[in-house]
Amino acid sequence: MTITSAEYIVSSARVEQCPEGQMPEFAFIGRSNVGKSSLINMLTGRSGLAKTSATPGKTILINHFLINGQWHIVDLPGYGYAKRGQQQREELRRMITGYILRREQMMNLFLLIDARHEPQRIDLEFITWLGENGIPFSIVFTKADKLSKSKLAANVRTYLSRLSEEWEELPPHFVTSSETKQGKEELLSYIEEIINS
Q1: How far, in Å, CA of 193 to CA of 107, rounded?
Q2: What parts of the chain have a pLDDT lower than 50?
Q3: How many helices (H) and strands (E) does the chain have?
C-alpha cells in the first residue's frame, strides 16, 4: 500500500465524539515516550502530522487522521505516564477503554513496545486485558535502530517468549524504526490485508 494523502481530521475527548461513518480505523497506543507520533509520521510520510514532543504524555485526546480518503489512523493517548494526577490518569483510562471496547470501526489496535526494554508489567497487563476482551491487536516493537541486530533479536525473542507463557497463539508482531523506516512496508501491507479481507 502507498499512502498518497494523510490529513488531520479531529481530536475527541470521548468515543461518542469520534467521526461518524463506517471507515475502517487502525489505532496506535503505547506507553508514553514509546515513539508513537514518530511512527505515525513515518508510516504516512508526513513529518509533522502527529505532533512529536520531547515531553512524554502530550497526547491527551483521541486523534483521527484520514488516510487516502478511505480509512483512519487513530492516535490514542499513551498510558502509564507517572507525572499525571490520579484524576487525569483515570479520565485517560476511561477514554482509552471506551474507544477500544466500543468503537466498532476499529479493525486493529497496534500496541507499541520500546524494543530496548525488558517486558514491563504495565504492558503485559494491558496485553492480558486486550486478550480477555477479544480485541484484535498486534505488537509493534519501536526504536529498532537504537540496538545492535543481535540485541534487538534477543529482546524481541525474550518478549515473545514471555507472552507465550500465557498465550497459545501469539499476536502478529512487527519490528520498526522511525529513523530508518524499518517495518513500514510490512505494517502498511498488514493494514491493507485487513481492509481487503
Answers
A1: 11
A2: none
A3: 5, 7
